Amino acid sequence: MKTSNSRKPSSLAARSLKVVGLLLIISSFVDVLIIPAPYQPLDLPWRLEFASTIVDRGIIPMIGIALTFAGYWMDTSGAATALPRKKWQDLRFWGLILSSLLGVVFLLVTAIHFNDVRMQSSSRLQDIQQQARQAETELNVQLGSEEFQQQVTQQRTQLQNQLRGLLENPAQVNQLLESQQTPDQLRALLEASQENPEEIDRFLDEQAAQLPEQLSGQIRERELELERQTRLAAWKSAFRIGTSSLLLAIGYILIGWTGLKGMMRPSRAARQAPSAN
């Protein structure tokens, strides 16, 4: 009676572990089937999102398999002998088959994801380059337009008047020269203009001549920054999803193949049966 009573909590715990394990496995497969819908396997963004979905949930079936096996172990550890069963009738056998298949699936996901990330990165880099070339073409058209030249002339005249008006106020000029917050370029211009007011015209002419190159430089800097961000995002995705998928593949394959190898090995009772005769 004591033995029977002591096995009731163990039996309940074992049953609970098996039920929870099976629920985890089933729920994870339901998520993987429902979340990616509608299925678009030929669409690159869909494949990337699908890989992220199954990898993020990839550990759940492994936990479910582990809990199921723990439940079976608790069921059989207290028994004197285990009832002989055919392997295909044992749920653990199918759990190991599932683990092996998932290992192969995650290996494929690893390879496919790395290739998809490379393709997406290349496509985005091409788009960035095309947008930069288009921006440069539009800039060249704008630089040659009469409206743009009028705007440059108007801004040049306004700045020229401001600087000449500033030179007429020596106290304000000295205050700017003594201030540490005054830009070096403006300080040098004020110092030169005090001796030769024509330096203002020369400075403004240089700024107008350098304007096209400055605008082109901004486009190139923006292009380089977008390319850097694209490569960094691709590296992060490949490292996070690819590495996680590879680790899951290794884990599932180790569980599945080592477990199947152990199940295929004859039990100790079977090996000792001939000697007993």
Structural account:
By secondary structure, the protein is mainly alpha-helical. The protein has 2 domains: 2-79 and 86-133 and 244-267, no CATH class; 142-223. The chain contains 9 helices and no strands. The protein has helices spanning 2-34, 44-56, 59-77, 91-143, 146-167, 170-178, 184-195, 199-264, 268-276. Helix 2 packs across helix 8. The longest helix has 66 residues, at 199-264. The chain is elongated and about 105 Å long. 15% of the residues are buried.
What attributes does this structure have?
277 residues; single chain; 2 domains; mainly alpha; elongated
Briefly summarize what is shown.
It contains 9 helices and no strands. It is an all-alpha fold and 277 residues long. The chain folds into 2 domains: 2-79 and 86-133 and 244-267, no CATH class; 142-223.
Q: Classify the helix fraction into a percent range.
A: over 70%
C-alpha geometry: elongated
* Pattern of helices and strands: HHHHHHHHH
Task: Give a short account of the largest sheet.
Answer: none
Poorly predicted runs? none
Q: How many distinct domains?
A: 2
User: Helix- and strand-based class?
Assistant: mainly alpha
Give the count of helical stretches.
9
Percent range for β-strand residues: under 5%
Distance from first to last alpha carbon: 34 Å
Give the averaged pLDDT, no decimals.
83
**Alpha-carbon Rg, integer:** 37 Å
- Tell me the number of strands: 0
